[in-house]
């Protein structure tokens, strides 16, 4: 299984476009300047529909980067290009020194991109712990046959993976639900378990697809707290697609706004929030 070294995960960019580094913004200034993900000029068409039209952006190591836009703007299409489900007709996507376009979803997951799903990617009949263990499947080296032949090694590997899963359970305060089948988890907890499943993959880049969709205010605030905690504890970058503007503005370091597959603004949350094009397209002139 191919894994990136810490060095290979990130390449120094010296040709960042001027709008990629906004001036005088403390939250951005404190970020690692090293680019982890570079998306250049990506165009994706479905017949006559252009879902993404020359989209470019980059995500730095440890950054929480948000993508916003009205329905049909192209947010999900970006995620599907990043994880190999869609293949753009034009453009490049680079993670560290690895080009992603043309790779299969499993190969991209093995390079360190994990994703949470809006409608939950959990196996309902499996316990929370087993769902998290499955998240680590691609990290496990012992297959059934080698497990039979080298029982001691398989056991040691299982112990190591269970310990890693328990750390995630602790981080996300999921202890009371360890043995609960995923299908019986309360909604807010299931969304957190979904985050845990993705974290169990030990990603370098986590794609968060509407992590607070359908949540009440209390659950949303809880999730925000866990995302902050994950960020503090784990060395990973996140791309957040979310309709909850308060969450985006509170958590994101930088925001990219799309409309009809075109980038209409990018910068700090404040800059994007104030951008007239965003107000018109996304907030319908209400702000
Ligand atoms: N598989 C597909 N086949 C045809 N058209 C598609 C497909 N996937 C997306 N599109 C089109 O591409 C455009 C962008 O869709 P996308 O789902 O990426 O938007 P979105 O910003 O995620 O929207 P939402 O907020 O509603 O989830 C839309 O016009 C959509 O109809």
Automatic annotation (TrEMBL):
Molecular function terms, GO-annotated: ATP binding; ATP hydrolysis activity
Q: What ranges does the record give for the region Disordered, renumbered to this chain? A: 1-27
* Record's compositionally biased regions (Basic and acidic residues): 1-16
Give the coiled coil ranges: none
Q: Which GO terms describe its cellular component?
A: plasma membrane
Q: Which domain of life is it from?
A: Bacteria
Q: Which UniProt keywords are present, listed alphabetically?
A: ATP-binding, Nucleotide-binding, Transport
Cross-referenced PROSITE patterns: ABC_TRANSPORTER_2 (PS50893)
InterPro entries according to UniProt: AAA+_ATPase, ABC_AA/LPS_Transport, ABC_transporter-like_ATP-bd, BCA_ABC_TP_C, P-loop_NTPase
**Segment forming the signal sequence:** none
Q: Where is the ABC transporter domain?
A: 37-285
What is the protein name stated in its UniProt record? Answer: Amino acid/amide ABC transporter ATP-binding protein 1 (HAAT family)
Please report the organism this UniProt entry assigns to the protein.
Herbihabitans rhizosphaerae
Its lineage opens with:
Bacteria, Bacillati, Actinomycetota, Actinomycetes, Pseudonocardiales
């Amino acid at each position: 299984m191919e894994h990136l070294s810490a060095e290979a995960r990130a390449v120094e960019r010296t040709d960042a476009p001027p709008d990629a580094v906004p001036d005088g913004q403390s939250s951005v200034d404190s970020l690692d300047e090293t680019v982890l993900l570079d998306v250049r000029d990506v165009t994706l068409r479905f017949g006559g529909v252009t879902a993404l039209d020359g989209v470019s952006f980059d995500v730095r190591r440890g950054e929480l980067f948000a993508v916003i836009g009205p329905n049909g703007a192209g947010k999900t299409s970006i995620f599907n290009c990043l994880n190999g489900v869609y293949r753009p007709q034009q453009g490049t996507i680079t993670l560290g020194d690895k080009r992603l376009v043309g790779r299969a979803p499993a190969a991209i997951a093995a390079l360190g991109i994990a994703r949470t799903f809006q409608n939950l990617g959990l196996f309902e009949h499996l316990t929370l712990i087993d769902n998290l263990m499955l998240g680590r499947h691609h990290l496990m080296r012992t297959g059934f046959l080698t497990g039979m032949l080298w029982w001691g090694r398989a056991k040691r590997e299982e112990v190591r993976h269970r310990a890693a899963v328990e750390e995630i359970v602790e981080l996300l305060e999921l202890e009371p639900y360890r043995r609960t089948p995923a299908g019986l988890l309360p909604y807010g907890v299931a969304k957190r378990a979904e985050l845990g499943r993705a974290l169990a993959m030990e990603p370098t880049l986590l794609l968060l697809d509407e992590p607070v969709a359908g949540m009440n205010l209390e659950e949303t605030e809880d999730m925000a707290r866990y995302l902050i905690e994950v960020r503090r504890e784990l060395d990973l970058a996140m791309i957040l697609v979310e309709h909850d503007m308060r969450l985006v503005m509170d958590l994101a370091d930088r925001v990219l706004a799309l409309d009809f597959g075109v980038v209409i603004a990018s910068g700090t949350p404040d800059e994007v929030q104030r951008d007239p094009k965003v107000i018109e397209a996304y907030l319908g002139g209400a702000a």
